[in-house]
């Protein structure tokens, strides 16, 4: 458990090193589909530490997992907006908010909530993100104007395809869950 | 009474496991292997022509020019010989370890066989008619006759039918054996078929959406970069599947032949999973000098290619562990005494062993080639040809030969006689010596700048070109020796299939080490496929979008022959 915390913290610090951060932010897809998820993963890894330090807090505020997952959804949705990505590049305060919100307000609550959720809620969340990602994918691919000051249209299109492929990955997973009953095999 | 019945049943199971061969499944595998080795024979004869041409000893006639021969050699060996062997071998592995193929799976296997045979015949006819002298990479803007591409489509359809058959077989077995692990050979087969399906999707897109409309004249131009990229996502992965097939025999079969045990079941499965997830993205290392791909992307792909080196190093380690363990149990003493205890006179061991050894220089050369600056030195030279004759011509082909000495008797209800074994050992030494010689000469000539895919020329007696000649002669000498090897191998296959004495042969599968328990999580194929998609997306989205959106004007067809 401590090990996981250390790995998560190390990942967090690594991502925050200025050359690493500025490299990852220099490419739009890497910014959104690598840096941001890796920040969330850093949070996932650090979560058990906080759960142990503040058991009452999580017990009280996230008893059935719903508040936590809602917080996760809100934070992630916020960072899906083109404008917020742009601002993270231009305003230091927003950049700092990104580095705090994604691990600690998305990653930590996700880990705390996921086990508490029913299978239905889990698949609901994945379905939600599949639909959102499909929408974002089409948006980024077909919108005729440049949405970010900092990224060219070509990068936008690449990001759109990355969203679509991520959605395809999730659809494969959902189909697998829907049609393959693990109890038939295990 | 019940106990006796149960005993009898389990005895029967045991007997089936060791000896049983389903005659109908055997026929399927036999058909695949026969095609495979006929392709080896023809491809090898073409190789001979190439070798002595490049030695400067033979000028090919205009009705069978060097590039036509080279196209046939490449396609017959890298696609037909390897692909048909892989499917035949894994189908018999599935049949043997999963209690016989389901009737519908067998049917899918036959459909696959028919479709790919039909496709292969179309392709070969077009090549022989000099209508498709585009080499096995069929890079646009060189354009072949549309029938050539239709042939490729049928080959791919046949492959898909075989892939789906394999998946159905595996899913059905898992349903009937809840909570059990897929037998390790079938695990390898599953991984290989997942990759095969994944990589052929790329070439299908290339042929169906880019090349066919263009070769039929529906569109005037083609996006060359995009086609090359899609091709290498396929081509690179394909050869790695042949390698994975060979690796399966190193892990599963060889330990049994030397009387040992599996290395470690879980870690073996981890190697398979790693190779499946990380493979396709290596494709870009074939395009290191292609324009239109940014440095950043190329840099990322160096990393992706080297990542595959890791499971390969695990493999090297594992195999020596297995051999040392078996050798020591047989009483081998000291640091290297165990080596003496290995069955060096058994072709079923010797051939794959030399194949593994060859992978050391082959892998090292591969790491060199995948590095930007070093690639610039050897790109498109004979060095590269030397490299893949080590990887494919030695590592893969010699493993397949080694397999043939027990698999063909097994499916034919015959036995490997000591005399045939002896012939196999001789064949192995001839092949090994000749390939080493030829590959060494190719590597060296390449370092001195001799280009690949170029029929014999002295460039007007240019001094540099004349300096290659001694090596080119060596290549020709190697080619002659190799042809003797091909003939012996082909004879052995036909003999074992139709004329060897009848009897029963074992399908050698090594048992686990006592106490080796497998993690169930390795069976989560759904997860591995999702990871595969994510890795592919990470590698390909940015460059492909760039190639499409920022495409230069497309290219009209060119026919340089
Ligand atoms: C009788 C044995 C063989 C001989 C004498 C031989 C010889 C050659 C020669 C001389 C070349 C042409 C180099 C050039 O001009 O670029 C070549 C190319 C090639 N060989 Fe072989 N080879 C043999 C076996 C194999 C095997 C077993 C494989 C694979 C399983 C293989 C795969 C290839 C491929 C893929 C090419 C490249 C074709 C191209 O550049 O389009 N060869 N071989
Ligand atoms: Cu490759």
TrEMBL record, chain A:
Positions of transmembrane segments: 62-81, 124-145, 157-179
Q: Which UniProt keywords apply?
A: Membrane, Transmembrane, Transmembrane helix
- Any idea what this protein is called? Uncharacterized protein
Q: Which organism is it from?
A: Anaerobacillus arseniciselenatis
Automatic annotation (TrEMBL), chain B:
Which Gene3D superfamilies does this chain map to? Cytochrome c oxidase-like, subunit I domain
State any GO BP term from the record. Answer: aerobic respiration
Q: Which domain of life is it from?
A: Bacteria
Listed under GO cellular component are: membrane
User: A single Pfam family, by name?
Assistant: COX1
Identify the SUPFAM superfamilies for this entry: Cytochrome c oxidase subunit I-like (SSF81442)
- UniProt cross-references to PROSITE patterns, sorted A to Z: COX1
Where does the Cytochrome oxidase subunit I profile domain lie?
Answer: 32-500
Q: Which keywords has UniProt assigned to this entry?
A: Electron transport, Membrane, Respiratory chain, Transmembrane, Transmembrane helix, Transport
State which residue ranges cross the membrane: 32-52, 72-90, 110-128, 148-170, 182-211, 231-254, 266-288, 300-323, 349-368, 388-408, 429-451, 471-494, 525-545
Q: What are the GO MF terms of this UniProt record?
A: cytochrome-c oxidase activity; heme binding
- What protein is this chain from? Cytochrome C
Q: What is the lineage of its organism?
A: Bacteria, Bacillati, Bacillota, Bacilli, Bacillales
């Amino acid at each position: 458990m401590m090990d996981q915390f250390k790995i998560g913290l190390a990942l967090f610090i690594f991502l925050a090193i200025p050359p690493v951060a500025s490299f990852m932010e220099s490419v739009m897809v890497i910014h959104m589909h690598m840096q941001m998820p890796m920040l969330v993963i850093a949070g996932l890894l650090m979560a058990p530490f906080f759960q142990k330090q503040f058991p009452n807090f999580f017990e009280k505020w996230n008893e059935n997992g719903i508040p936590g997952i809602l917080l996760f959804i809100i934070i992630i949705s916020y960072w899906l907006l083109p404008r917020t990505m742009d601002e993270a590049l231009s305003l230091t305060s927003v950049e700092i908010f990104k580095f705090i919100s994604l691990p600690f307000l998305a990653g930590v609550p996700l880990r705390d909530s996921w086990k508490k959720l029913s299978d239905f809620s889990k698949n609901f969340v994945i379905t939600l993100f599949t639909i959102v990602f499909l929408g974002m994918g089409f948006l980024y691919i077909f919108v005729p104007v440049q949405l970010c000051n900092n990224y060219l249209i070509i990068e936008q299109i690449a990001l759109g395809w990355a969203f679509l492929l991520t959605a395809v990955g999730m659809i494969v997973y959902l189909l697998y869950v829907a049609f393959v009953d693990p109890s038939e095999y295990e | 009474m019940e106990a006796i019945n149960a005993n009898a049943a389990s005895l029967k199971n045991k007997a089936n496991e060791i000896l049983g061969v389903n005659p109908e499944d055997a026929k399927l595998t036999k058909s695949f292997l026969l095609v495979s080795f006929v392709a080896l024979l023809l491809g090898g004869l073409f190789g001979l022509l190439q070798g002595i041409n490049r030695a400067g000893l033979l000028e090919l006639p205009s009705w069978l020019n060097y590039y036509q021969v080279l196209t046939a050699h490449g396609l017959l060996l890298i696609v037909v010989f390897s692909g048909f062997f892989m499917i035949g071998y894994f189908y018999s592995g599935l049949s043997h370890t999963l209690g016989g193929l389901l009737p519908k799976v067998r049917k899918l296997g036959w459909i696959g066989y028919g479709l790919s045979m039909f496709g292969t015949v179309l392709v070969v006819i077009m090549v022989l008619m000099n209508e498709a002298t585009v080499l096995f990479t069929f890079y646009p803007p060189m354009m072949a006759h549309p029938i050539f591409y239709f042939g490729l489509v049928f080959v791919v359809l046949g492959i898909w039918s075989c892939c789906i058959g394999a998946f159905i077989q595996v899913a059905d077995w898992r349903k009937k054996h809840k909570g059990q692990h897929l037998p390790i050979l079938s695990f390898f087969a599953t991984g290989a078929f997942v990759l095969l399906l994944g990589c052929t999707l790329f070439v299908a897109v290339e042929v169906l959406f880019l090349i066919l409309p263009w070769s039929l004249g529906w569109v005037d131009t083609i996006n060359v970069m995009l086609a090359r990229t899609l091709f290498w996502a396929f081509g690179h992965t394909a050869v790695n599947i042949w390698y994975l097939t060979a690796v399966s025999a190193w892990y599963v079969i060889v330990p049994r032949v030397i009387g040992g045990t599996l290395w470690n079941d879980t870690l073996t499965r981890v190697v398979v999973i790693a190779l499946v997830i990380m493979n396709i993205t290596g494709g870009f290392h074939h395009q290191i000098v292609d324009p239109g791909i940014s440095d950043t992307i190329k840099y990322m792909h160096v990393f992706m290619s080297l990542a595959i080196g890791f499971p390969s190093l695990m493999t090297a380690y594992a195999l020596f562990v297995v051999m040392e363990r078996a050798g020591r149990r047989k009483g081998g003493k000291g640091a290297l005494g165990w080596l003496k205890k290995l069955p060096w006179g058994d072709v079923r061991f010797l051939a794959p062993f030399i194949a593994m050894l060859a992978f050391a220089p082959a892998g090292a050369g591969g790491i060199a080639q995948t590095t930007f600056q070093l690639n610039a030195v050897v790109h498109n030279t004979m060095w590269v040809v030397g490299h893949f004759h080590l990887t494919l011509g030695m590592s893969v082909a010699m493993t397949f030969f080694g397999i043939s000495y027990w698999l063909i008797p097994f499916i034919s209800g015959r036995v490997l006689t000591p005399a045939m074994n002896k012939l196999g050992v001789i064949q192995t030494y001839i092949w090994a010596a000749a390939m080493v010689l030829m590959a060494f000469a190719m590597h060296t000539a390449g370092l001195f700048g001799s280009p690949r895919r170029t029929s014999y020329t002295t460039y007007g007696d240019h001094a540099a070109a004349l300096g290659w000649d001694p090596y080119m002669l060596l290549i020709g000498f190697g080619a002659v020796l190799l042809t003797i090897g091909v003939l012996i191998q082909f004879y052995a296959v036909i003999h074992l299939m139709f004329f060897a004495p009848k009897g029963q042969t074992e399908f050698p599968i090594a048992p686990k080490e006592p106490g080796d328990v497998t993690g169930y999580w390795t069976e989560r194929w759904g997860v591995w496929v999702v990871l595969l998609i994510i890795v592919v997306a990470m590698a390909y989205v940015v460059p492909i979008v760039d190639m499409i959106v920022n495409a230069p004007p497309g290219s009209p067809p060119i026919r340089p022959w």
